[in-house]
Amino acid sequence: MKKISIVVPMYNEEEVVEACCERLINVLKSMDNYDYEIICINDGSKDKTLSMLEEIANSDSRIKVLAFSRNFGHQCAVTAGLKEVTGDVAVIIDADLQDPPELIPDMVKHWEDGYDVVYGKRKTREGESKFKLMTANMFYKMLNTLSDVDIPKDVGDFRLVDRKIVDQMNALPEHNKFLRGLWSWLGYKQYAFEYERKERFAGKTKYPLKKMLKLAGDGIIGFSTKPLKMCAALGIISIGLSFIVLLYSILAYIFNFGNLVSGWTSIMVAITFFSGVQLLSLWILSEYVGRIYDETKQRPQYIVNKTINIKNKNEAE
What we know:
By secondary structure, the chain is an alpha/beta fold. It has ten helices and eight strands. It has an eight-stranded mixed β-sheet, sandwiched between helices. The protein is elongated, with a radius of gyration of 25 Å.
C-alpha cells in the first residue's frame, strides 16, 4: 500500500490546530488505497499550539510532531517536515485551511497520471487585502523578469511532490531556501492545479510585511544574478552622465550660455548622484555577500527541541 505524507508548518495556530488535523484525517481516511502520516512542525509557537499537538499525537501515532527550539520561519519548518517524510508522495499545506484539504485526492489523481509535482494555482484569493494582492503580483513579475527559472504566478507552498523530488530537495545544502523557486528549478513533470483559495479558518496571518519582504529577498537573490549586473549598468550610465555634465560645462564656458555658478551645481549633482549609485551598488552586493556568509557558517537551519511519534530523532539538521 502506498503512503501519503502531509507536511503542515504551524506557528501560533491554536485556533485552527484541531480543525486542521480533523479535516486532514477525514480526507486521508477516505482514500482507502493509501496509508498516511501527518507531520506537524511547531515553529516556536508561543500559544497552546504545541500542547494541543501533543494531545492529538498521543492519541494517534500517525500524527507526528517536530517542535523547534524557537521560531525559525516557515521555509525552515517545511524543510524540517520534508526531511521526516516516509511516504511515496508528500503534500505541503498550511494549517490555516485557506488551502482546502479536500483537494488532496484530486491532486493525488494527477500524480497517479504521471505528474511529479502538482502545485496549487489560485484562481481567487478570498480574505486578502488589495495591498497584499498588488504586492504579490509585483513580486512575481519582478522575480520572473530577473530569474532564469520560470516561477508560476499565484502559486504558494501548497503542492504535492513525488518522493524522488523530496529526496532531491533534501539533498540541497543551501540555508536561505526559497522553496517555491526550488521546486521549479528542480524541473520534472509539473501540473498547475487551479482552485479557489478560501479565507483563513481562524486567527491572523503569520506573514506580515517584514516576513514577506524577507521571502521576496530570498527569492530574487537566490534565483538571479541580474541585480549584480545592474550595478555594472548603473556604473556605465553614471560615467555617461558625468561626460554629459562635463561636455555641457565646457560648451557653456566657451559659448557663454547658461548661468553656472562657479561649478557648484555640477559638483553637487555629481556628488549626490554618484553617492547614490555607490550606496545602491553596495547594498546589492552586501545582500549577496551576506548570504555567502550565512552559508559558510554552516549553522543548522533549525534546532528541533522535541519530537513525538518520530523514530529517528535528530536534534539538529
